[in-house]
Amino acid sequence: MAKIIIFDSDDPLAKQNRIFNPEYTYNQPGRSALVLLHQTASACGVEIVTSDIFLSEQPRGNKPLILSEMITTTTQTLVSNYQAVPTICFCWESPNAVWSFYHNLERNVRDYQHAFLFRGAKERVKDPTRFYPVFWPMPTRTVLDGPEWSQRDYLVMVVSNKHRFAVSPHRPAPEIRQRLKQLLWGYLQLADPIFRLPDLYHIRLKAILSFLNVEGFKLFGTGWEKPNGLKRQTWQAIQTIKPRPVDNKLQTLSNFKFTLCFENCVFPGYVTEKIFDAFLSGCIPIYLGAPDITDFVPSDTFIDVRHFQDLSELHHFLSQISEAEAVRYLEAARDFLNSPAFDKFTDQQNAVEMFNIFDQAF
Question: Which residue range forms the structural domain that includes residue 36?
Answer without folding.
Answer: 3-137+346-361
